[in-house]
């Protein structure tokens, strides 16, 4: 498949990658192009903004969570029908995962750019430099000859004269300047304890910010040059990822509710696609607004998000909390991760939650962050005992106790973690099921078996 594409990278975090990538997606979309947004790494929040700009899901490309062999197939799956793809990087261009056993630079933006054979646009924060920008760009252009630096976008430029100095300095670098974006404080996206405020929580305000970013980038960046660069990316001789080829469908069609709305904004699109491919009917429930689970719900998935920000409103929705507890009590499968664990707990910061799990959670000053290689300690609706997965932790809350009598996982450097209780699996661990599709298949089977007389008839491969 031939998909024009660029990777938007930076020398370090906080250089403006998200703003430039979102603005680029919005500007190209405003031209009438179908733009496919992607994000390197496990981050859920940035894809919310680029996805909002594109009008299609922002999809993650993470060699740790899904395996590097799936990165290109997942990219092609997400980019179906697109005129161009924009891939936002993570941290600095060459900064990768630091988990033991991984080679330096694994899962970095450079790693993914190599896998995609995509040119890189480097976003440089020029606010505190002049001629030195040439040395910086030269270093990034020559550090790794397998990574093609196709252009530079100068960000936070102070004035016309500042821009002129920067362009002159880069004149002999061999790397074209594709644009220069001025310092615009009003475009700052609000942040809090885990980074940017998700786009889904800001609704009309987020739409306005994305629109304004598109206008700024359209006025400051040579979009034709970016498209020309994107079209230099060669064809990828790989078949797109197909969820239907990853799981075996079953007879029966269990209805599985997936939590959404402002409190539960973290989720990978591929997880839902795998549930559907395995035979489920997937519906959405908003724990802030809906007073009951959708009629006929036989299973529930509660992913990540910010329930701590919405704890009072979640607690006030007593009828839905009771419905969730009743589903778990009658054996309806429930898979919860991070925010989902908090929602199922007895309490969160002192206010009542669903009470499905015998644990209480509170906010903590400490950020827990990083990849984990975990093993399932017991059989559950999600995984049989002994299953090994690679996941990601990202939270500022602490649950006490951290594990139940039957824990969900164990990983290096930590004690047992999470809860397996009857038909409930809850943990802080975020998982992209595209890397472990058997999880989705097992969960759908459990949902069908919970409601069909005699259990579901499973079409094994």
Automatic annotation (TrEMBL):
Cofactor: Mg(2+)
E.C. code: 6.3.5.9
Gene Ontology molecular-function annotations: ATP binding; cobyrinic acid a,c-diamide synthase activity; hydrogenobyrinic acid a,c-diamide synthase (glutamine-hydrolysing) activity
Catalytic function, reaction form: hydrogenobyrinate + 2 L-glutamine + 2 ATP + 2 H2O = hydrogenobyrinate a,c-diamide + 2 L-glutamate + 2 ADP + 2 phosphate + 2 H(+)
CobB/CobQ-like glutamine amidotransferase domain ranges (all copies): 255-434
Keyword Cell division among UniProt keywords: no
Domain of life: Bacteria
Cited InterPro entries: CbiA/CobB_synth, Class_I_gatase-like, CobQ/CobB/MinD/ParA_Nub-bd_dom, GATase_3, P-loop_NTPase
Keyword terms: ATP-binding, Cobalamin biosynthesis, Glutamine amidotransferase, Ligase, Magnesium, Nucleotide-binding
Biological pathway: Cofactor biosynthesis; adenosylcobalamin biosynthesis; cob(II)yrinate a,c-diamide from precorrin-2 (aerobic route): step 9/10
Residues at the site labelled Increases nucleophilicity of active site Cys: 430
Active site: 338
A Pfam family the protein falls into: GATase_3
SUPFAM superfamilies (alphabetical): Class I glutamine amidotransferase-like, P-loop containing nucleoside triphosphate hydrolases
GO BP terms: cobalamin biosynthetic process
Enzyme class, broadest EC rank: ligase
Domain CobQ/CobB/MinD/ParA nucleotide binding: 6-191
Keyword Nucleotide-binding part of the UniProt annotation: yes
NCBIfam families: cobB, PRK01077.1
Family membership noted in the UniProt record: Belongs to the CobB/CbiA family.
Function description: Catalyzes the ATP-dependent amidation of the two carboxylate groups at positions a and c of hydrogenobyrinate, using either L-glutamine or ammonia as the nitrogen source.
Domains (record comment): Comprises of two domains. The C-terminal domain contains the binding site for glutamine and catalyzes the hydrolysis of this substrate to glutamate and ammonia. The N-terminal domain is anticipated to bind ATP and hydrogenobyrinate and catalyzes the ultimate synthesis of the diamide product. The ammonia produced via the glutaminase domain is probably translocated to the adjacent domain via a molecular tunnel, where it reacts with an activated intermediate.
HAMAP family: CobB_CbiA
Additional free-text comment from the UniProt record: The a and c carboxylates of hydrogenobyrinate are activated for nucleophilic attack via formation of a phosphorylated intermediate by ATP. CobB catalyzes first the amidation of the c-carboxylate, and then that of the a-carboxylate.
Protein name per Swiss-Prot or TrEMBL: Hydrogenobyrinate a,c-diamide synthase
The species this protein was found in: Geodermatophilus africanus
Lineage: Bacteria, Bacillati, Actinomycetota, Actinomycetes, Geodermatophilales
Gene name per UniProt: cobB
């Amino acid at each position: 498949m031939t998909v024009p594409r660029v990777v938007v990278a930076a020398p370090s975090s906080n250089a403006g990658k998200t703003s430039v990538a979102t603005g680029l997606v919005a500007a190209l979309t405003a031209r009438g192009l179908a733009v496919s947004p992607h994000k390197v790494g496990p981050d859920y929040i940035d894809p919310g903004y680029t996805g909002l700009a594109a009008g299609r899901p922002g999809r993650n490309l993470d060699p740790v969570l899904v395996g590097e062999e799936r990165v290109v197939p997942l990219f092609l799956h997400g980019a179906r029908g697109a005129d161009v793809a924009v891939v936002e990087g993570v941290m600095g261009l060459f900064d990768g995962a630091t988990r033991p056993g991984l080679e330096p630079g694994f899962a970095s933006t450079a790693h993914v750019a190599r896998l995609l054979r995509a040119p890189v646009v480097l976003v440089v924060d020029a606010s505190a430099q002049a001629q030195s920008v040439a040395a910086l760009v030269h270093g990034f252009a020559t550090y790794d000859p397998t990574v093609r630096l196709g252009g530079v976008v100068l960000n936070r430029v102070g004035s016309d004269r500042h821009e002129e100095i920067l362009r002159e300095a880069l004149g002999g670098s061999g790397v074209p300047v594709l644009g220069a974006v001025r310092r615009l404080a009003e475009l700052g996206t609000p942040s809090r304890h885990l980074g940017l405020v998700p786009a889904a929580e800001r609704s009309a305000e987020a739409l306005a910010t994305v629109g304004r970013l598109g206008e700024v980038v359209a006025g400051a960046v040579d979009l034709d040059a970016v498209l020309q660069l994107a079209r230099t990316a060669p064809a990828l001789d790989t078949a797109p990822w197909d969820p239907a080829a990853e799981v075996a469908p079953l007879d029966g069609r269990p209805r599985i509710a997936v939590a959404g709305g402002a409190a539960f904004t973290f989720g990978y699109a591929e997880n839902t696609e795998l549930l559907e491919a395995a035979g489920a009917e997937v519906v959405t429930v908003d724990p802030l607004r809906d007073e009951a689970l959708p009629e006929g719900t036989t299973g529930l998935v509660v992913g990540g998000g910010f329930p701590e920000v919405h704890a009072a409103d979640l607690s006030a929705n007593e009828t839905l909390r009771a419905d969730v507890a009743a589903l778990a009590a009658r054996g309806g499968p429930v898979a919860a991760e991070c925010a989902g664990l908090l929602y199922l707990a007895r309490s969160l910061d002192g206010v009542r939650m669903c009470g499905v799990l015998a644990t209480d959670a509170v906010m903590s000053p400490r950020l827990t962050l990083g990849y984990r290689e975990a093993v399932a300690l017991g059989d559950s609706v999600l995984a049989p005992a002994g299953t090994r997965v690679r996941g990601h932790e990202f939270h500022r809350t602490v649950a006490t106790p951290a594990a139940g009598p039957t824990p969900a996982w164990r990983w290096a450097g930590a004690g047992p973690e999470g809860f397996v209780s009857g038909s409930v699996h809850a943990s802080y661990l975020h998982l992209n099921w595209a890397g472990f599709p058997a999880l989705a298949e097992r969960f759908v089977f459990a949902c069908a078996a919970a409601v069909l007389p005699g259990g579901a008839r499973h079409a094994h491969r």
